[in-house]
UniProtKB/TrEMBL annotation:
Belongs to the iron/ascorbate-dependent oxidoreductase family. GA3OX subfamily. Keywords: Dioxygenase, Iron, Metal-binding, Oxidoreductase. It is an enzyme of class 1 (oxidoreductase). It comes from the Eukaryota. This is gibberellin 3beta-dioxygenase. Pathway: Plant hormone biosynthesis; gibberellin biosynthesis; Hormone biosynthesis.
Length: 371
């Protein structure tokens, strides 16, 4: 991944690793991780309300997949996909690899700690410093090669980890490109409209990061938060979650809806940069991760973005006299720096004007990690 993205992410404040507890060994919820009701439930949600609607599920092999994806992007900002081309064997391997990593003793994981100004490595969620309480999770971020940290974790057996990560990232990049053209095609965008798509629209120059997340069983899940509400700074994020529920998305700014794990399916959510590209037609979705008392949850997120030097702005085909551009041009590097400093104000800070005709910027709650 180009150094400019890495440099931008380094500017995001993080907690030092001495604050990281071994959550697998904690029997009582510590005050450092105890969220008050008002802090945890900023948006109204009763348990039954969360299940009134279900996130769209799109079969990529269907003839009308593009139409279905476009509708899901405009109305939800998130959807699940099946028949996506990623083998069950590879999904099993990446899940097993994540479990292997997070099951290491804490002293071993800390050898691969993300430095205070670093990007890759083991640590607490990068958004932790924006909240008064810590989150019930641990993560491992990969930007570029995982070799250095893998050697610290498994000095004599690091190739297995690196090989799986490399294979997973390769297949995710292909899927991300496919999803990009389906989504953009639903908006009437062609390869001729997007110069940075590269040869044959392959998006070969795009940047990406991989985020592995672990949410151990929690003694008091109602008072804890796995990952606080946020949107992603990417163009889009592809998430694999194990068979334990925990991901929730905010629906219409009023209630949380659970995204249940479906065998073989992947979750795709719209990030802030696609929100900008689409001039607000495809909103980035606010989401969070909750925890439970008995089951461990693991997720693997692939965050896809443009080349670091490309300025992202509303596509010309989506702009006219009645629908002026809502956002100024911004590179991913610049946007990451804005989020690192202003967190939930980032999207509004690159906005040029108020949305017209009922569409546009509906989510100003932004961050840089996914659940």
């Amino acid at each position: 991944m180009p150094s400019r993205i890495s440099d931008s992410m380094r500017g995001h404040p993080v907690y030092f690793q001495h604050k990281q507890l071994d959550l697998n060994l904690v029997k009582e919820l510590p005050d450092s991780h105890a969220w008050t009701t008002s802090l945890k439930d900023e948006y109204p949600c009763g348990g039954h309300l969360c299940n009134l609607e279900t996130v769209p599920v799109v079969d990529l092999a269907a003839k009308n997949a593009q139409e279905l994806l476009g509708h899901a992007c405009k109305t939800w900002g998130v959807f699940q996909v099946k028949n996506h081309g990623i083998s069950k064997n590879l999904l099993d391997k990446i899940e097993s690899t994540g479990k292997r990593l997070f099951s290491l003793p804490m002293h071993q994981k800390l050898k691969a700690s993300r430095s205070p100004d670093g990007v890759s490595g083991y640590g607490v969620p990068r958004i932790s410093s924006f909240f008064p309480k810590l989150m019930w999770s641990e993560g491992f971020t990969i930007v570029g090669s995982p070799l250095e940290h893998a050697r610290q974790l498994w000095p004599h057996d690091y190739n297995k980890f690196c090989d799986v990560i490399q294979e997973y990232e390769k297949e995710m990049r292909k899927l991300a490109g496919k999803l990009m053209w389906l989504i953009l095609g639903s908006l009437g965008i062609t390869e001729a409209d997007l110069e940075w798509a590269g040869p044959e629209g392959s998006f070969e120059g795009g940047c990406a990061a991989l985020q592995l997340n672990s949410y151990p069983a929690c003694p008091e899940p109602d008072r804890a938060m796995g990952l606080a509400p946020h949107t992603d700074s990417s163009i889009l994020t592809i998430l694999h979650q194990n068979n334990t529920s925990g991901l929730q998305v905010l629906r219409n700014g009023t209630r949380w809806v659970t995204v249940p794990p479906l065998p073989g399916a992947l979750v795709v959510n719209i990030g802030d940069l696609l929100h900008i590209l689409s001039n607000g037609l495809c909103p980035s979705v606010l989401h969070r991760a909750i925890v439970n008392r008995t089951q461990h949850r693991l997720s693997v997120a692939y965050l896809y973005g443009p080349p670091s030097s490309v300025k992202i702005s509303p596509l010309q085909k989506l702009v006219d006299q009645g629908h002026p551009p809502l956002y100024r041009p911004v590179t991913w590097s610049e946007y990451l720096r804005t989020k690192a400093k202003h967190f939930d104000k980032a999207l509004s800070l690159v906005r040029l004007c108020a949305p017209l005709y009922g569409f546009g910027d509906t989510n100003d709650h932004n961050s840089v990690t996914v659940g």
